[in-house]
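#help-structures

NK: newbie question. if I give both the sequence and a SMILES, will the prediction place the ligand too? trying with pyridoxal-5'-phosphate
OV: yes, paste both and it writes out the complex. here, I ran yours:
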Amino acid sequence: MASDSTLPIHTNGVPPPPSSTSTYTAATLAIHADDSLNSSTDVAPALHVSTTFRYAHNPDDLVPALDEPPDSSDTNIPAPHVYSRLTAPNTSRLEAILSQLLNGKALTYTSGLAAFHALLVFLRPKVIAIGEAYHGCHGLVTLHHNLHGLKVVDLHDEAAWDAAGLGKGDLVHVETPVNPTGEAVCIRRLADLAHKRGAVLSVDATFAPPPLQDPFKEGADIVMHSGSKYLGGHSDLLCGVLALRSERVEEGWWEGMWRERLLLGAVMGSLEGWLGVRSLRTLELRVERQSGNAEKLVGWLGGLLGGGVEGEEGALVRKAVARVRHASLQKGEMGWLREQMPGGFGPVFAIYMTTPELAKRLPSKLKLFHHATSLGGVESLIEWRRMSDAGVDERLLRVSVGVESWEDLRDDLLQGFKALAGEE
Ligand SMILES: *Cc1c(COP(=O)(O)O)cnc(C)c1O
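OV: that's the protein plus ligand as structure tokens.
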């Protein structure tokens, strides 16, 4: 096989792929960043189910596998697959695309929590600063506390950071936008505070995938995603992602994490990898639509709540809804927020109903919103949060906006409010 990168890699003459220094935009890379890993003439990727792969026939080409992780400086060299716990064709293609879209070399894991666990295992921090975040991430932090005494301090309490000795090798972890409100936290500020102390900053960016924000531009060292949400986008796969800032890759983090993943065994299955590639092709289209839909719905609800608008529509909304929360309503903070989220705000927002009973009943009145947990799929979801989070305000509904027409979603909510009013 030709190893000169200027030559077509494959016997069928596939031209050289976009390189990692490519000037193609994300929309193009989502379709083509994995071209070089297409080892057949198929246009749609093949699904490879083999767990094991033949070694090179030529004895001179035999390189013992564990000595050499795939070259971390180039996403476009097809890995010589050996065994699917190391690498496999479908997940390699997924990682090649993710590395381009996230602007940092990426590794995938079985789920978002598997990725966060892998991060904690790799960094082995003595102290972690963490604020409001996915309850499972807090669960993992507790697990690590029990395993080896990881100290946990509040993200917004710098005095507590210093009292706990947060410093070199420690971790500041922020989720933004944050579950369940969709409100954002300033990444740049936390990056500076962490780096000043020699600690690193990880950002759980699940709620605002590309093209909404790039946490590396704001100083993040690690960007984490639950790929089960927007990256997958169709509510049909579990996936976790860690992407690394280029300086951290140069320090050997990617190789280290790759070697540890081999031991943790938390690799995605090939079907999930295949589904992930299918999904990323349309990431930008989906997310821009979802973000726009959410901003319009929030604007509509917020306008009726705040503006004292006359008429039946305003009266129905004000009777049912007490408050709406979303990054687009963080009025006082638009300076850093516009810079941090240049592509638009996240497609998740929170509705606080006027009573817990109304929150519990609204989902049953809706025709277009499934009543279910999770988020990020093409279909709109609404969840009475009390179903999956015991500590939460019982008036809270979390909305994950899909790609339907926003006017239809608006009308569905409105008829839901009307149906509730009619029951009284
Ligand atoms: C869902 C979610 C996770 C966990 O991801 P899984 O893929 O379900 O393991 C972590 N963080 C956030 C913000 C999430 O929404």
